[in-house]
Amino acid sequence: KKAPSQSLEDSKAKLLARLPSPDKPWMEQYAILLRPSTSNKAGTLIGLLCIPRVSSDGEIPELGYGIHSDYWGHGYASEAIALFISFYWAEERKNSKDSFEAYTGLNNLASERVLIKAGFRRCEVLKGGHEVVDVNSGEKQMEDVTCWTLERPRK
């Protein structure tokens, strides 16, 4: 599990770093919430879905997502990805692209199933070829990952 932010200021700084800007117009981030209930009127934040970066040529956005471990295995990631992809390609957007990439750790079979269910295809294994940034420490490291791709459906 990743450690939660230690302060409101820390949380704000992390969120602001993930907003679109002139140098990152493609940046998008969405909260994954459980519906509000009578006991929890605001809903429960259970994860995030984002476009944290694009390919070096600027043509392929990377889809990133994470669900708190207490909520794994309930289909929330699959539902969030399906909704996001349909929203992304239904909207007229200045920077819309025709495909997505996503990456999974080599042993993350649950995440692989989520991507397959969403229509992604396995591309290749990248040995030490994907930069992963720890959201709490900001520390960067290179990891072995499986690359996945999803093409926009043709009409």
Describe this structure in words.
The chain is of the alpha+beta class. Helices cover 21% and strands 33% of the residues. It has helices at 8-16, 76-90, 109-117; strands spanning 28-34, 44-51, 64-67, 99-105, 121-133, 140-151. The protein has a three-stranded antiparallel sheet with strand order 1-2-3, covered by helices on one side. The protein has a three-stranded antiparallel sheet with strand order 4-6-5. The termini are far apart. GO terms for molecular function: acyltransferase activity, transferring groups other than amino-acyl groups.
Topology of this structure?
Elements: H1 8-16, E1 28-34, E2 44-51, E3 64-67, H2 76-90, E4 99-105, H3 109-117, E5 121-133, E6 140-151
Antiparallel strand pairs: 1-2, 2-3, 4-6, 5-6
InterPro entries: Acyl_CoA_acyltransferase, GNAT_dom, N-acetyltransferase
Protein name: N-acetyltransferase domain-containing protein
Domain N-acetyltransferase: 1-143
